[in-house]
Design a protein that fits this description.
The chain has 142 residues and is mostly beta strands. 10% of the residues lie in helices and 43% in strands. The protein is built from two helices and 15 strands. It has a six-stranded antiparallel beta sheet with strand order 1-3-4-13-8-11, with no helix packed on it. Strands 10-9-12 form a three-stranded antiparallel beta sheet, with no helix packed on it. This is Cupin domain-containing protein.
């Protein structure tokens, strides 16, 4: 969905502010709209990607539990686990990412994209950021 006005109408959880804290781990601009306050035991936020924006390969580490759940809400995107084919994302698609699995996600080249990100609680959880998705590999998906 390249038309930003139509995307904004579909993006019911809101774009939020530019994600400057984690910008170094994204190619392109992303935006973060927290859906719960700091008192919540869960991190829950709507993440919006401009067209062609994607995060770097990363792993949600945990000794027990952990991982991440993505609930796609607007636009079109991609999700890929290391060694597997990329999965097309559209509103209503839910992706459950187990702890300790290398992956990336982001917008398709011609579409804005949003998903709700839920960090799954666990023991000794942390995100390990890795290398960017290569331009060649990303463009091969479009």
């Amino acid at each position: 969905m390249s038309d930003k006005v139509s995307f904004d109408e579909e993006n019911i959880f809101g774009q939020g502010q530019e994600n400057v804290t984690f910008a170094q781990y994204f190619d392109g601009k992303s935006f973060l709209n927290p859906l719960v306050d700091d008192q919540s035991p869960l991190f829950l936020a709507n993440v919006t990607f401009e067209p062609a924006c994607r995060n770097h390969w990363h792993i949600h580490r945990a000794d027990k539990g952990g991982g991440q759940i993505l609930i796609c809400t607007a636009g079109q995107g991609w999700y890929q686990e290391e060694g597997k084919a990329a999965v097309s994302l559209e509103p209503g698609k839910v992706i459950v990412i187990p702890a300790n699995v290398k992956h990336w996600h982001g917008a398709k080249g011609d579409s804005w994209f949003s998903h709700i990100a839920l960090e799954v609680p666990g023991d000794n959880t942390k995100t390990e950021w890795l290398e960017p998705v290569s331009e060649e590999d990303y463009l091969a998906l479009s």
